[in-house]
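Here we describe the complex-level prediction in full. Unlike the single-chain runs in Section 2.1, the two entities below were treated as one system.
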Amino acid sequence: MINKVVAGADEAISDIKNGSTLMLGGFGLCGIPENCIAALVRKGVKELTCISNNAGVDDFGIGLMLQQHQVKKMISSYVGENAEFERQLLSGELEVELIPQGTLATRCMAAGYGMPAIFTPAGVGTEVAEGKETRNFNGKDYLMEYAFDADFALVKAWKGDTAGNLIFRSTSRNFNPVMAMAGKITIAEVEELVEPGVLDPDHIHTPGVYVHRIFQGANYEKRIEQRTVRPRN
Amino acid sequence: MLDKNGIAKRIAKEIKDGYYVNLGIGIPTLVANFIPEGINVVLQSENGLLGMGPFPFEGEEDADLINAGKQTITTLPGSSIFDSAMSFGMIRSQKIDLTILGAMEVSENGDIANWKIPGKMVKGMGGAMDLVASAKNIIVAMQHVNKAGESKLLPKCSLPLTGVSCIRKVVTELAVLDILPEGGFKLVERAPGVSVDYIRQATAGKLFADDNAPEMIID
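The structure predicted for the assembly as a whole is:
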């Protein structure tokens, strides 16, 4: 088996440069590549374009990179939980492209499937459609949306093996598998790194061919954004 | 006049046995609390879950298990988990029978605006544009008038659109209204104690209202 293991987050992201385009997995704070984000903050790279469903909160996730003014542009579907984000957006420091969540996921998928573009009805007749080619199929209008072209995809998995095969846990799967498929270089951080043969091939969500570097993550905080519970009775 | 739970209760009556349902954030989330006994419904959460269960007991929260509102939730026997592309695949291919979502404005031809107030609020559309572009059956849960007393049921939306000619039913604190294919709101039911005249005054868009429109029955 081809060994994809690197020592840690700092080595994994060492060739991410100022101006790189990154995909970051996760939905809200669920399933985000915490170790890679911390390493990017340490490295201090700037002018990044980040493709991620959300932009974290003020003091966690991509919010940590926003605090350090490392992000030039965000491509997201929903950014409602981050006051610093909103401040930078309204002051013009940060460029933002808001796109429908399904379009975001499918543009990742298209990149991973080797398809240059997809057609989706999401956004027809809205400002999302401005400047885009529209095609009619079977009486319904669809927008043409291009596959993403990202230099790096940073994903977080539950388990992975040294060959780069990944398994995600629960709803922390979200955007991670489609982004893993879409990066020119895909970096996976995992809670548990195992030897080949430990994971059942039938249970693999992301085949190792899509993963270029993998490392055992550490100190996962896994912050909960909205802690909702019901009473025991 | 209905409170938020009343709106949710009335919408819950629209859910039929065997439906797969996507509930948006806000009032739509409350609908889950009022699904009638004996009706089997599967709730979809577009971050990648079919079969959304109730909130966990205190101490059993799992950071890896959340809904689209980022709230901790649980799975149920028979739940399934998938990635975001598949989640919107099942939305686009109309496997989801009913979508319930909130709105800032709805127009008499079924346009909806719920994602942006220029210069004021820039949160984004999340999955709403995908849902309204593809769902065959959409119910909007909303307030009939805003805090300034202005109608949110309009001839034409003033805010940036989320979707065009896609809404067919609206449930507000005052009424249940259908949006007619040829345009216009048709009063279907009045909220308890609300007169047809009151609804007329609160509706800026074209309204077709029978003076004898029935009062809704909830509970």
